[in-house]
Amino acid sequence: MGIVIGQTESAGPFALVSTWGKLRTPLIGSYDDFYVYFYNYEVYSGFHSNEGLFLRTWRWPESFFWEDSEGNPHIQYDGPFVGFQSVDTTSEDDGFFSIGAYDWDGNGAFGNPYYTSANNQLDQRDIDEGLVGLDVTYTTGTLTINSDALLSNPSGVWYGQAIGMNTITSVTDIETFTAF
């Protein structure tokens, strides 16, 4: 016998959960481009499939407080956020592209928060069959998404897919997706 997700408001492991909102999502444009309501959430900008479908996710976006090893406060945002880290012109570090969390506690005690592919909450089949290999257009060029941009459970400090010494200030297009 199965349980209908969202069936009850009072008990059980799936109480207070919206079936549609919990299990499907667009890619969210930024960590601050969504708002969670009691039973659902709203996404202000991002990317959805050209067919109008959403990606499977095991949990909807969330945020929570944490402190780094130096006692500095952070707010972590988990979900399928389209993120990037631009090249630091004062160093020789690579820029990065990812779909995942923002200010992830696994990246440690950094003064600046960064995007990472960690905790993207996406279904692995959707990642393998729908996202890896797509072309992304950003500020100064294009890239082809690889699994580094979508690695949800890295074992250490992780930003996503390295894109070399390229400046990235916005993502304007993801192949087979429509920006909204």
Explain the overall architecture:
This protein has about 180 residues and is mainly β. It has one domain. It has helices at about 20-25, 125-130; strands at about 25, 25-30, 35, 40-45, 45-50, 55, 60-65, 75-85, 95-100, 135-140, 140-145, 160-165, 170-175, 175-180. The chain has a 4-stranded antiparallel β-sheet, with no helix packed on it. A 3-stranded antiparallel β-sheet has the order 2-5-14, with no helix packed on it. Strands 11-10-13 form a 3-stranded antiparallel β-sheet, with no helix packed on it. A hairpin with a 2-residue loop joins β10 (about 135-140) and β11 (about 140-145). The longest helix has 8 residues, at about 125-130. It is globular and about 45 Å long. Residues about 1-15 have low confidence and may be disordered.
Order of helices and strands: HEEEEEEEEEHEEEEE
Q: What separation lies between the terminal Cα atoms? A: 40 Å
Q: Approximately how much beta-strand content do the residues carry?
A: 25-35%
Total individual domains: 1
Shape label = globular
Poorly predicted sequence stretches spanning 5 or more consecutive residues = 1-15
Radius of gyration: 17 Å
With strands numbered from the N-terminus, the spatial order across the biggest sheet is 7-8-9-12
Mean pLDDT: 85
Oligomer: single chain
Q: Characterize the main sheet.
A: 4 strands, antiparallel
SS-based class = mainly beta
How many H/I helices? 2
